[in-house]
Every structure is written in structure tokens, then in C-alpha cells.
Protein: Leader peptidase (Prepilin peptidase) / N-methyltransferase
Amino acid sequence: MAFWLVVAACLYFAVMAVRLTIIDVRHHLLPNRIVFPSYGVAGVLLAGAALAVALSGALGDLPDAGAVLFGVPVLGIVAGGAALWLFYFVLRLIHPPGMGFGDVKLAGVLGLYLGYLGWGHIFAGTFLAFLFGGLWSLFVLAARRGTLSSAIPFGPFMLAGAAAAMAVLPA
Structure:
């Protein structure tokens, strides 16, 4: 059962990522009508998967034991979402023009997914988001299609970083 819940969560992630990427590239916007329901969908599916594994008596099978915090599987997922949301919120406070609040809200959703897999995935997904965004910015500058003050939608890079961390790193 846990396997199918994770598959459903991954399919939802893929659909959400495509929709948000298209909207953010076109309009520099991550709409609440997509991001807010994603908390519930991802939270229920991932928590269900973590609990299904825990109830089957196979806690050792949890990915990197990342979904377990203080012996409770769901707390790892919630902690991942809260930690990533807080990190992006602090970035927004430090430099508001550089980070939209839509990115902050999306970070919480991505933290749920990455938190299910473990803290290493959270760090890797965040690092990859900034790496991908930075490389794209360098390309835009080198191609003379923008300047240092050009606005670049960051949501697609956040989604790509999270997806890369989920797909490439061992669970």
C-alpha cells in the first residue's frame, strides 16, 4: 500500500510541477489555487505511506529513516515542510525583491516531499534549485537576454532541484 501512495504522490508532483512551471515562466506567479491544495494532497499521501510502512513493522524500510522523527514517521515530513518554508521565508525577509512569497509557499510543499526522503534530500534539493537558477541566470547574462536586475521565475528551478534530488539520490 505504501508503494502505491508514494506513486500517487509522485504523479501528483509531476502534474503540479508542470502546471506551476508553465504559469511561473509565463506570469511570474505561483498561484495559491495550485500550491495550497498541494499541501493537503502531498501531506496525506506521504504521511499515509510513512504510516503504512511504520504499521507494517518495517521501520527500517523507511527511506534513510528520513520520514521518522522522534519515532513518529509523519513528523519527519512535517519538519521537512516547515524547515524549507522557514528557510525561504528568511530569504524573503532578507531580500524581498529577490524572492516572491509564492516561492516561500511552494518551498513548504517541496519540503514535505523531500522531508519524506530525509534531510540529505532537503539539502540537496535546495542546493540544486539555487545551482540550476544560478546557471540559468549566467546563461541569460551571457546571451545578453537580461541584466543583473532582470526578474527570473525561481519556481521552476525549485521544482527541478527537488525532482532531481528525489530522482537521483538514493532513498
Observations:
- The radius of gyration is 16 Å.
- The chain is about 75% helix and 0% strand.
- The first helix runs from residue 2 to 27.
